[in-house]
Q: What sequence folds into this?
């Protein structure tokens, strides 16, 4: 970022040691970049509660400040003022450290997100892989929290959650491979730049759907709500957490969903590209925020509408449906893309390609994905019909049997 | 000797993580804490890979070792807890301590006395990950070990599931 | 820049700690954790030599690829090793290697 180099030059001029000045300016850059998610989380909690309330046909917080905007601050003050309890037999260091690791892992993701074409924390050449690696940090913190609470139910909840999180990383990575493959690089700036011709969601809608579903599972959102199921297993792995520690888990989850929304906007929806985005960085930032927020709002919508799945249903869905589908998708897209590039029908490098250049590629890839989706939906519908017919038959047989038994 | 810049501070911090975590792993009585120390140590090693211009290996280290193997070890620790007897930590303590110290001295002598490489790293071309990907599928490159490694992983996965399966007939 | 021998010294220390863990610990899972430490020490060594090698002008990737394959094989070995430990625990109710002595002459 230009701020860092400017600060560094300023410090060196006023006589500081060059290496130390570089380190201090890096530190200040880190503080600035990590300030963005911390401010975002305050707004997110309010948005979440208001929209959840409206979908459930009630009003939501509206007393503290205009439209309840200050509700988050009131909640934070309440959580800070609560007594800080550590269970006696719990592992002190691990118990206190795991909310921090969980929150830190989410804030760490914001270091690689490019807000505008020129402003980002760092342009890692492996940014997509960084995203998945940091997600595994969150898994680890859940496990440690479950163990350190010294509570059987917390441990059982943590087991289930870790199995869920580790399982859904597989289709997540496979669906992440598609934008990486199409853009030829794992760097998020390159992926966003490579969508100048056509957004990747049009090129491969199936990849976007698989990524969306897997990221809902990864962050513990409905319908994969097991992680925070308040009515099951006495609230899962964070039973023993109260006060600000619970608040950190809470805030980390909301921030994780929003970060995933921004990431999906970057990976599939063209990032900061929109009308007039090259005029000013602010317009680019606005487009990115808009797209990320729309995806986040669909997440909220689904969360407040669908019921919760059981753990065995979730696992069966993942291993029997999502994983073969995502692997097949990767194979199909890569084969088609290579064939089209050899036939000169598609540009080798998507950066700077225009819409007419990308048209053959778009049509072929989109139709192939559409064919897979239609086939899968047909299969699902047939399966659903079979199950419905068979359950109707069993019910009819049962009614007949009990009717004849009662009629005797 | 060493100038104070970001790389030296990073090296110092990662050394503390790595060696501290390693000592924690071999001296802890509570095996679950040992797993957490292992995660700390692996994180330090990922930091080393970053300092050595291998960011892909650092990310894969965190993803595979911390995100999968350490969690696997945690599950194994929880599934094999013995409630009846209190296990002692060590067996053959003094001979193994002496043996590992002697090994350490021999290795240190082996790395400090001869002078390998220079003090500067060779200038590294930017797209290491890109070249690595190309090398893995190149016919003159490493495509055969790559395919064999994927076969190995599949065989290990199937074998591990089969061995640890609960035989409920 | 950090001189090469510092990386090698840290790797040597890590390897020795791992050797102590393998020889001295009683619990089989703890031995496996120490084996992982040793494998990581070798990884640091390989990557350090790849980075600092003087003939590495056109980016020979041997050290890099070797390290990646060690990561893969270590993952496979940890999975199978833990499966065996769990299986032995189910049969003999103990994770101490000295207790699996049925074949002892």
A:
């Amino acid at each position: 970022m230009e701020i860092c180099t400017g600060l560094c030059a300023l410090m060196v001029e006023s006589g500081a040691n060059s290496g130390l000045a570089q380190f201090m300016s890096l530190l200040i850059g880190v503080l600035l970049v990590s300030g963005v998610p911390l401010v975002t989380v305050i707004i997110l909690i309010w948005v979440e509660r208001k929209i959840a309330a409206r979908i459930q046909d009630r009003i939501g917080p509206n007393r503290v400040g205009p439209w309840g905007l200050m509700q988050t601050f009131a909640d934070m003050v309440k959580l800070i003022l609560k007594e800080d309890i550590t269970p006696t037999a719990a592992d002190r260091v691990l118990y206190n450290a795991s909310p921090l690791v969980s929150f830190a892992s989410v804030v760490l993701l914001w270091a690689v997100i490019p807000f505008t074409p020129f402003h980002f924390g760092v342009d890692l050449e492996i940014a997509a892989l960084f995203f998945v690696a940091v997600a595994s940090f969150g898994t680890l913190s859940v496990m440690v929290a479950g163990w350190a609470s010294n509570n059987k139910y917390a441990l059982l909840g943590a087991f289930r959650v870790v199995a869920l999180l580790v399982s859904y990383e597989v289709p997540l990575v496979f669906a992440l491979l598609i934008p990486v493959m199409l853009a030829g690089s794992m760097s998020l700036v390159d992926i966003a730049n490579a969508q100048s011709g056509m957004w990747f969601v049009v090129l491969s809608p199936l990849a976007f759907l698989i990524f969306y579903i897997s990221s809902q599972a990864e962050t513990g959102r409905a319908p994969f709500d097991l992680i925070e199921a308040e009515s099951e297993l006495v609230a899962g792995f964070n039973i023993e957490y109260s006060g600000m520690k619970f608040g950190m888990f809470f805030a980390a989850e909301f921030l994780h969903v929003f970060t995933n929304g921004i990431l999906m906007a970057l990976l599939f929806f063209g990032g900061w590209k929109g009308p007039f985005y090259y005029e000013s960085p602010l317009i680019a930032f606005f487009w990115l925020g808009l797209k990320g927020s729309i995806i986040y709002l669909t997440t909220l919508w689904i969360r407040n509408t669908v019921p919760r799945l059981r753990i065995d249903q979730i696992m069966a869905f993942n291993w029997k449906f999502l994983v073969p589908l995502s692997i097949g998708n990767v194979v199909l897209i890569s084969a088609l893309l290579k064939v089209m590039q050899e036939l000169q029908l598609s540009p080798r490098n998507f950066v700077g390609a225009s819409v007419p250049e990308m048209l053959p590629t778009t049509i072929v890839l989109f139709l192939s994905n559409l064919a897979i989706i239609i086939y899968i939906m047909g299969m699902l519908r047939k399966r659903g019909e079979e199950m419905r017919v068979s359950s109707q038959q069993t019910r009819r047989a049962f009614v007949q049997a009990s009717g004849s038994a009662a009629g005797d | 000797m060493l100038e104070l810049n970001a790389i030296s501070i990073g090296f110092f911090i990662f050394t503390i993580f790595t060696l501290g975590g390693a000592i924690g792993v071999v001296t802890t009585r509570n095996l679950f804490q040992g797993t957490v120390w292992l995660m700390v140590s692996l994180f330090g090693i990922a930091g080393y890979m970053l300092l050595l211009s291998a960011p892909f290996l650092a990310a894969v280290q965190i993803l595979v070792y911390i995100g999968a193997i350490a969690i696997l070890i945690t599950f194994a620790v929880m599934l094999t807890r013995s409630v009846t007897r209190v296990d002692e930590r060590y067996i053959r303590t003094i001979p193994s301590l002496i043996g590992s110290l002697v090994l350490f001295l021999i290795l240190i002598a082996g790395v400090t006395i001869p002078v390998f490489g220079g003090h500067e790293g060779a200038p590294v071309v930017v797209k290491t990950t890109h070249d690595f990907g190309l090398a893995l599928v190149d016919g003159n490159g490493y495509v055969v070990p790559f395919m064999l490694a994927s076969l190995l992983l599949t065989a290990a996965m199937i074998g591990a599931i089969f061995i640890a399966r609960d035989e409920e007939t | 820049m950090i001189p090469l021998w510092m990386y090698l010294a840290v790797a040597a220390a890590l390897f020795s700690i791992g050797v102590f863990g393998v020889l001295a610990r009683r619990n089989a899972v703890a031995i496996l954790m120490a084996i992982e430490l040793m494998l990581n020490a070798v990884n640091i060594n390989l990557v350090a030599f790849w980075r600092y090698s003087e003939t590495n002008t056109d980016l020979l990737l041997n050290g890099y690829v070797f390290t990646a394959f060690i990561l893969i094989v270590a993952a496979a070995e940890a999975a199978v090793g833990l499966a065996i430990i769990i299986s032995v625990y189910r049969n003999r109710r103990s994770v101490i290697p000295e207790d699996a002595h049925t074949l002892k002459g």
About this structure: Residues 82-403 of chain A form one domain.
